[in-house]
TrEMBL record:
DNA-binding region(s) in UniProt: 17-36
Organism this protein belongs to: Aquibium pacificus
Domain HTH tetR-type: 1-54
PROSITE patterns: HTH_TETR_2 (PS50977)
Protein's UniProt keywords contain Signal: no
Keyword Transcription: yes
Signal peptide range in chain numbering: none
This protein's name: TetR/AcrR family transcriptional regulator
A Pfam family this chain is assigned to: TetR_N
InterPro entries assigned to the protein according to its UniProt record, in alphabetical order: Homeodomain-like_sf, HTH-type_TetR-like_transc_reg, HTH_TetR
Alphabetized SUPFAM superfamilies for the sequence: Homeodomain-like
Keywords: DNA-binding, Transcription, Transcription regulation
Length: 178
């Protein structure tokens, strides 16, 4: 698993072959196949191992925060710190997901987690669940793609959270029909 995980981070899932895994692990290809019958099994095991070492932020850490703004800042700050620490893996995973069928289910599970986080954050604001622009803004704000775009613009994580907070405040000041 360590060999697979390191190859995924170094060259990406799309370029990681069973031969490369075997070479990195110092074993024969047959040994890899004995442990993992197919690419999906390799991805499931690798994903599980990597997420065990790099778990996403736990929403329980901000669930008790009543103030919607503080809850939002805490949640987004935790997600952005996580993306900062795990950038290499998320970057190659997002790049390769369309080309690697075995990667699609784990990525969909993570996208589902982010959707749950954004919906929870929206629900804390007045009219939040019924405000389509707020849902769209928060749904985008919690993604790796949004974080990465802002990071590529040399905006640090604290500034990213403050910027997204300004987006949300602007959305809430306008009417849903705007």
């Amino acid at each position: 698993m360590e060999a697979t995980m390191h190859l995924h981070e170094e060259i990406g899932p799309r370029a990681t072959t069973i031969s490369a895994i075997a070479e990195k692990a110092g074993v024969q290809r047959l040994t890899v196949y004995r442990h993992f019958p197919d690419e999906t099994a390799v991805f499931q095991a690798c994903t599980s191992h990597w997420l065990g070492l790099n778990p996403p932020p736990d929403p329980a850490s901000w669930n008790s925060i009543e103030d919607p703004w503080q809850r939002f800042r805490t949640a987004l700050g935790a997600l952005y710190a996580y993306f900062s620490r795990t950038r290499r893996m998320w970057s190659v995973s997002h790049r390769d997901v369309a080309d690697v069928p075995a990667l699609q289910a784990p990525m969909q599970a993570f996208f589902g987690f982010l959707e749950t986080v954004s919906k929870d954050l929206a629900a804390r604001f007045p009219l939040g669940e019924d405000h389509p622009h707020l849902a769209a803004t928060l749904g985008h704000a919690v993604t790796y793609a949004a974080w990465e775009d802002l990071d590529n613009r040399q905006i640090d994580d604290r500034e990213k959270v403050a910027l997204v907070e300004r987006w949300v405040r602007g959305v809430l000041l306008g009417s849903p029909a705007d």
